[in-house]
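Subject: Sanity check before I submit

Could someone independently write out the structure tokens for this chain? I want to compare against mine line by line before I put it in a report. The sequence has 303 residues.
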Amino acid sequence: MSTSSATPPTGDSLSGFLYALSAYLLWGLLPIYMKALAHVPPSEVIAHRVVWSVPVALAVLWWLGRTSELRAALRSPRLLGMAAMTAALITVNWGIYVWAIGSGHALDAALGYYINPLFSIFLGAVLLREKMGRTQMVAIALAVVAVGILTWEAGRLPVVALGLTLTWGFYAYLKKRLPIGPNQGFTLEVLILLIPALAYMIWLAAQGTSHFRQGVAWDDALLFGCGIVTAAPLMLYANGAKRLTLSTIAIMQYIAPTMIFLTAVFVFGEPFSGVKLLAFSLIWAALVIYSLPILAARVSRAG
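---
Independent answer below. Compare away.
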């Protein structure tokens, strides 16, 4: 991601690739971190993600010399209103994700993030009247069939996957319309969430149900570290995306859900039935179909 005034890159840089790769690897490893916090309620984990992200995000903005834009945003009711909407969406997204990992639904989380780029195309067509190509329509149709198969198997919609897809899709859509850089936007979001998060943490402590500072050093370290594991990949991604073409980002975005998928099956031991294999195969086929025109365009430009 870059500031709203930045010019899109005309090519890829090594530094941009390394920034983005680091972000996606961290996101791919995040389930292992969150699984260690499975005994902590998701709402408490989210509160700590917010609170400890604030100093990290502010430090990065200070280092980049971009605090003036944040101060201007804090004085704009319109910007605050828009940021409050994105903050609400990312909070719900975090809540679904943390619950999914802790309750043995990491596969559903991977599915949600696989579907997300296809949902973004759909959103663009519906909300922005962007024209979809034939390959994109086929890819979206395959994703719909995959969701239908999973719904038929479970007897209900894959709520976790769809919840992550919808919240992240609308978050990304609104985030693009937020007239402020992504680093500043993320800082603004966690600042908006800071007071309710702090109030909730204080309430938990008063009720005696908090997991923070209860004599378990490991819990304290993990909850405190939520700020780093939340803010760091977002900041790395922001610095990587502005140095990469959109086509490169489009291909790299599969790294994290693939790592989540492998972790769910081979580390967490979540059941992977034949029906799920069929559904995931359709999703993978859809992503290949979606990616082919992007790769073809890159080859054409390189030639």
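---
OP: Matches mine. For the report I'm noting this point. The chain has one domain: 14-302.
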